[in-house]
Amino acid sequence: MILTPALARHSDVDDLVALVESAYRGEASRAGWTTEADLLDGRRLDREAAAEMIDDPSGVVLLVRADDGSALGSVQLRDLGDGTAYFGLFAISPRAQGQGMGSRLMTAAEGYAAEHWQARRMRMTVISKRTELVAFYERRGYELTGETEPFPYGDERFGIPRTDDLEFAVLVKQLV
């Protein structure tokens, strides 16, 4: 199955939110391996934040849909300037995980950033406790930089932490 990502539009907001929630939060997310349900409660993405990402003039949200129209994968890209793009909001539906969809979507996202913004590097942040996710990105050529960023405690737009030791690890991949 070869699926091509499309630019997300406002009409995609509800599907984008449902996809991201299914991949990261709540009991349904436990069907896949990307769940954050043991680390965070609350929302992973709300309608307002999704719409802001779609409207961001420095970025895009790519969305992959199945033949039946259901949302299967997403990624947010932002042009940070200086040849660097940001990779975030990466979500694959639990029903589509383990089938190579994530790797294909990452490749498409990296190609988009290189083609549209002449990006030479891709940067991302991952909750450092998500060692299996960090390992996935490392297998795809991303490297830990040794930098960390604080988790935004108190800002429920990022979820409600179940632990007080969360932080983001910074990873970078050279695209060219």
From TrEMBL:
Signal peptide positions (record): none
InterPro entries according to UniProt: Acyl_CoA_acyltransferase, Bact_Acetyltransf, GNAT_dom
Gene3D superfamilies, per database record: 3.40.630.30
UniProt keyword Acyltransferase present: yes
Keywords for the protein's UniProt record, in alphabetical order: Acyltransferase, Transferase
One Pfam family it belongs to: Acetyltransf_1
Stretches assigned to the N-acetyltransferase domain: 1-167
The protein, known as: GNAT family N-acetyltransferase
